[in-house]
Amino acid sequence: MAMKMTRKHLWLVDTTLRDGAQAAGVVFTRSARIAIARRLVDAGVPELEVGVPAAGAEEIADIAAVAAAIGGERVVSWCRGTPGDLAAAGECPVGAVHLSFPVSDRQQRVWRRDRAGVLRDLHAVVTAARARFGRVYVGAQDASRADPAYLGEFAGNAAAAGAARIRYADTVGRLAPGQVAAALAPLLRAAPATEIEFHAHNDLGLATANTLAAFEAGAHAASVTVNGLGERAGNAALEEAVVALRVAHGVEGLVDCGRLAALSDLVAREAGRPLPLQKAVVGAAAFLHASGIHCAGQLRDEQCYEAFGPALVGRDRPAFVLGGQTGGAAVRAALQALGVEVDDGVARQLAREVRRVCRELGRDLEPGEVRQLLAHRAA
Questions:
Q1: Of 49, 182, 266, 267, which sits with the fewest C-beta atoms within 10 Å of its C-beta?
Q2: pTM of the prediction?
Q3: Which of 223, 218, 225 shows the shortest CA–CA distance to 195?
Q4: Which whole-number Å values give the CA distances from 71 to 40, 94, 238, in the listed order?
């Protein structure tokens, strides 16, 4: 049975500055990393995974700069589960380290590891990490393609070694929401006293849905990125997960939702990845209404065709679209905004004219153009 979710049960780890920064073509400057980190903290995100220390001295300096800006206790550095990566992480003034180990047979073959060797390395590296960091997290990389029995053994060993949290990584984004509970079950059984985190990738467009399913199944934490930025098709989107938890489950207070739009715009700009118009929650078209029925309903009740309004995420309410599906209510509202009053009959006639002209031109009309159509009728 799915647990009843409350704020105290859920924890978000933002990995925009690690997994998001690994998106093809994305290069965050140091100043951009600091600006994004500050905005995340301002929004109330409690923990940020920042950088890969093994990438070298410049990366370590970037991690240190972010830690200085927001406080090292909020920052996690990401490592492969090797002594060399751990040594590089030791140069970062952060509060936690994440150690990732391949747990599927496929990835162990690729990285010339084996099941027994991973378990030996897990114990040794976690023990060494605990001597340096206040919190040590362990990642089960490619967990969704791992043998469940071995995954449970891995989780039990990670808990015994002292890991504060174990991450189930759907590294190639192959899960569907209905599979998530069974996928997490080996970890929840083997490490009942240890926090379990879910890390989703969006290869099937299901990362946010899978993240909610993970929380429903009993996961304590989830890693997310702003705008879903990340490798290939990206990760679970912070803004989508937060608003979905609020709307679908009534979980409030995870972050300040009113800051989500500005945060989204900042990351899109710094990443050079403009948001799709239809991007859920924060896209420019997320609150646009065009059809006559929808616009008429919205004028009577702003929640008639919306699960939540734009103000929740810090967006202004846009005007109705005047296009090929426009009705009289939208036309009348657009003219009223220009200080022009018409009755319902004229508005309906004008809406027919608007639809005709839009189809001829192959585009929507601006309110001023609709006023011109009205003037031509009167001439």
A1: 182
A2: 0.93
A3: 218
A4: 13, 8, 21
